[in-house]
Amino acid sequence: MNRVVLHPLASYDRAACETALTELLAPLGGMVAFVQPGQRVLIKPNMLAGKSPDRAVTTHPEIVRAVIRQVQDAGGEALVGDSPGVGSCVQVARKCGILAVVEETGARLVPFAESLPASHPGATFHHLELAREVFEADLIINLPKLKTHQMMGLTCAVKNLFGAVVGMRKPQLHLQAGSDKAQFAQMLLDLAGHLQPALSIVDAVVAMQGDGPGSGDPIAVGALLAGENPLAVDAAALELLGLEAADCWTQKIACAQSLPGAALTEVEVLGTNPQALRPRSFRPAKATDVSFGVPPLLRRHLRRSLSALPAIDAQRCSGCGLCIEHCPPTAMAMNKHLPHIDLKRCIGCFCCQELCPSGAILTRQGLLLRLSRFLFRAPQT
Question: CB 3.0-4.6 Å disulfide test: which of 5, 85, 96, 288 passes with 308?
Answer without folding.
Answer: 288
